[in-house]
Write a structure and sequence with these properties.
Elements lengths: L3 E5 L2 E4 H23 L5 H23 L9 H4 L19 H18 L4 H26 L6 E2 L33 H9 L1 E2 L2 H23 L7 H17 L8 E2 L2 E2 H22 L7 H4 L6 H8 L1
Antiparallel strand pairs: 1-2, 3-4, 5-6
Helix pairs in contact: 1-2, 1-5, 2-4, 4-5, 5-7, 5-8, 7-8, 8-9
């Protein structure tokens, strides 16, 4: 499908941006329901959505700009073309790093909560598990942009590039095959793209995120009375990086440090650090002895605690 929905003069509305913003809005709606059921003002979620999107996109862009991916579209490129750092009108939201976006969004939540005298961990509990849903929807933007796919494969679910629209440069493109998006595509070009498939890593990550969204939702609804404020965030910081570590194995264009992709190093640190913090928080803590703390932030957690006591 065409990555551009419509274009009016220099302005173009891209599907990628719609998927990112749309996913964030849906996740915010679910989070606002959690907040309302926990007795909080859900309007804070919608205020946080605006700030988190703005600061999150800035963080995601900076992560991409200062990265060093294999395709060279990182700091090596942007230091020579600084205007392209803010060239959002050419390519929409392309060139974003999820970990930078998470850092920016978390910072926005922390500052907002500090200003309004709210507990940031409580509000991150409302939001964090639902970010998985937003990420799953956002990955569909990579599908439309025909980017961030994996190495060549002949599995039945392989992703095949539509050469009529721009895409990420395929690896080992034969010299007699045109680059996707070129005018007047030759028959040889059409045949090559039709016969060469790639691992759909965006679908892999989207599927993992949807699975983890379901798992965390179940855990929170079923065992929310045993969770402490902040556990929802920690569970997210374990669930998402586990999948990201696996998906990065299929990313030939990844930014690499040593023998692993940078995203894999971040995933290892996040999973181990969050699991250790989760252990420390529950080592000498009992939800039966501290019911005021166990009325966590999620959905019907308070109702579950009340009915279980």
């Amino acid at each position: 499908m065409n990555p551009v929905i419509f274009q009016f003069g220099p302005f173009a509305l891209h599907w990628y941006g719609v998927f990112i913003v749309g996913g964030a809005v849906i996740a915010a709606w679910v989070s606002s329901r959690y907040a309302a059921k926990a007795g909080e003002n859900p309007d804070h979620i919608w205020n946080l959505l605006a700030w988190s999107l703005i600061v999150g996109i800035i963080g995601a862009r900076l992560y991409h700009v200062f990265s060093s991916p294999a395709d060279g579209l990182g700091w090596a490129y942007y230091r020579e073309h600084p205007l392209d750092i803010i060239n959002f009108w050419n390519g929409g939201f392309r060139g974003l790093g999820i970990y930078g976006g998470l850092a920016g969004g978390t910072l926005a939540v922390a500052v907002y909560c500090w200003y309004h005298k709210l507990n940031p961990l409580r509000w991150l509990d409302f939001i964090a598990p639902n970010v998985l849903l937003a990420q799953a929807i956002g990955r569909m933007g990579n599908f439309v942009n025909q980017e961030l796919y994996g190495p060549p494969t002949n599995v039945p679910w392989a992703f095949h590039i539509n050469p009529k629209y721009p895409c990420q440069l395929p690896p080992n493109l034969p010299p007699d095959v045109q680059f996707c998006g070129a005018p007047d595509l030759t028959q040889r070009t059409l045949e090559w793209y039709a016969s060469n498939g790639f691992h759909p890593t965006f679908f892999y990550e989207a599927g993992w995120n949807l699975l983890m969204f379901g798992v965390l939702t179940f855990i929170i609804r079923r065992y929310g009375h045993r969770l402490r404020t902040g556990d929802g965030l920690l569970l997210y910081l374990i669930a998402y990086p586990l999948g990201r570590f696996w998906v990065e194995m299929f990313r030939p264009d990844a930014w690499v440090i040593g023998n692993l992709a940078t995203a894999q190093w971040i995933a290892i640190a996040s999973v181990l650090g969050s699991a250790f913090i989760l252990y420390l928080r529950h080592r000498n803590w009992s939800w039966q002895e501290h019911p005021e703390e166990s009325l966590a932030a999620m959905s019907a957690a308070g109702q579950v605690a009340t009915s279980s006591s």
